[in-house]
Amino acid sequence: MAGCLWGTGFFFGKLALREMSVGHMVLYRFLFATLGMLPMMLSGRRRHSGGKKTAWTWREKGTLLLSAALGIPIQFLLQFEGLARTTVSHASLMVGTMPVLLALGATLFAGERLDWVGWLALAGSTVGAGLIVLGGHEAGAAGVAPSLGGDLLVVLSLTIALGWILMNKNLMQRHSPLAVTAYGILAGTLMLAVWVVAMDGLPPVATVSRTAWLALAASGVLCTATTTLLWNWGIHHVPASRAGVFLNIEPALGSLLGVELLGDKLGPFAWIGGGLILAAAVTLTARGHDFDPEVLLE
Length: 298
Description:
Blueprint: H1 2-6, H2 9-17, H3 22-47, H4 58-85, H5 88-95, H6 98-109, H7 116-134, H8 148-171, H9 177-200, H10 210-237, H11 240-243, H12 249-262, H13 268-286, H14 293-297
């Protein structure tokens, strides 16, 4: 579910970027995300009001702040600066590298293991994501042509996102996914607001069209608040390397949106790529009862 909603993020972002700068667009996205998190935060607080809460240590607070800085202002400003310099299809293709980065990071730094079938499924889904994007011919939405610089900025943002994912997984060993998600979004949004207002000034209001407002609201509530909570809850129950295969839903769906709404043409390679992604996801899910014992005991 998180991958499907994330897959619409570049499309909504491209709509909003027609009327405002990267910084203002990202700031509005996270302001809406913060509003979207409020009901979940209040519900979680009432649910735990009668129970014992796990106190946050100073080290955990520092990890949360670093994670929020990496995962929100740094990652998203770089990622959408890259999107502003390239096309939706190329940006989606770059996202297809994330599962490989995630599996490698989880193996090197989190002590997780992935057997040969898992690695084969992961490689197949990543190839499938590439085939989907390469199977469509970008029509140049909003007059923007693909660029190497924009593509590399998106890849750099994904490398930074890897640190955010692994730090969140570590925090969720002692704290709930809801708490980590809510506090991370709130802290990151505050950092983002200070930076954007200092660099770009106050965001526009009167000149923003209804289409842009709807795109900003959808990207904030659906593509950020809801997806972050779903992803953190999911990664709390499965190893990060196994969860990585589902990140390929994002470039798959992003490419389809480019085809259907931005004028790309979907070729036979794209259909093959979609089949690879679905096959990899089904393979890992069908054999997904060999999770780490520590995760099951949680």
